[in-house]
Fold this sequence. Notes:
The chain is α/β, with parallel strands linked by helices. The protein is built from eleven helices and ten strands. It has a single domain, classed as Alpha-Beta Barrel (TIM Barrel), CATH 3.20.20. The radius of gyration is 19 Å and the shape is globular. The structure holds S-adenosylmethionine, 6-(5-methyl-2-OXO-imidazolidin-4-yl)-hexanoic acid and iron/sulfur cluster (SF4).
Amino acid sequence: xxxxxxxxxxxxxxxxxxxxxxxxxxxxxxxxxxxxxxxxxxxxxxxxxxxxxxxxxxxxxxxxxxxxxxxxxxxxxxxxxxxxxxxxxxxxxxxxxxxxxxxxxxxxxxxxxxxxxxxxxxxxxxxxxxxxxxxxxxxxxxxxxxxxxxxxxxxxxxxxxxxxxxxxxxxxxxxxxxxxxxxxxxxxxxxxxxxxxxxxxxxxxxxxxxxxxxxxxxxxxxxxxxxxxxxxxxxxxxxxxxxxxxxxxxxxxxxxxxxxxxxxxxxxxxxxxxxxxxxxxxxxxxxxxxxxxxxxxxxxxxxxxxxxxxxxxxxxxxxxxxxxxxxxxxx
Length: 331
Ligand code: SAM
Ligand code: DTB
Ligand code: SF4
């Protein structure tokens, strides 16, 4: 592996610079992204994460892409916060499947308080006790909540910016971009790693993508994880009829994220079911080194475990080992 110090970590990316990366001839972009990737990460290795919706639906927010918003009529059935035992049983299954990170998602505008929040803290402690990284995505947090999650051992907090500040209002009106950034700052202040990314295919143009990437890449430090989602157009949501995005735009988005944030995990997130195997491989070539495993994301389908196993075997990709079994983790 080349010396990681050869690739600087920059926080001053400008939109024209990002545009130049994103719009380069695709093969040049892929080469650049793969060179950055190999300088900073083990080759052919992907982190496996598993998602669980711990509280589903009936969300007061109006995110136009989301089947869990109470404002839209979708097939999602609302369910209250799960038990700790059921959640930890799912985490143990995820670990057996090869996942090293377990991500718990709740359809809340703001993380709940009181007993429900205490239950989430128990879930975090339980996941950590299984030897896995614990991630939560619970909506907006106060500093006290972020600190309590840190104290419970939370490894990462997911809170996506989703798109550019300029396009945000056409997707979400019930909260502001700045509120999103405030929660990210609280998570960082609490000492929990940041997972933040966005979605493509919602009708945004390339400039919105450059500006989203600029927001993420000018955070200092960069988010440790950057999920790039391809819109899953769900019946009943305002974005149900959007035409499918060109998969090569997803490849460009991932490759640009890799170049801008060389040391972050870039996650090929929602939307894998609509990609061919070959398009997924291009995403890995572009520097994606994390995926969600398991047949369900939060409420929508994801490739079956067998399909992923077969694809990884064909391509020679291995799952990132757990810290306990990793040879890299030796002192
Ligand atoms: N309620 C919390 C929040 O909004 O932060 C956490 C859960 S929310 C479902 C997590 C993320 O999933 C969203 O920020 C969005 O980026 C992504 N997401 C939701 N629905 C999606 C869809 N239909 N297609 C792609 N990504 C989606
Ligand atoms: C992220 O960026 N994508 C995940 C995770 N973070 C929480 C969620 C994708 C949700 C896709 C729609 C659904 O399954 O409900
Ligand atoms: Fe609620 Fe999160 Fe869905 Fe928005 S993305 S409607 S906040 S669950």
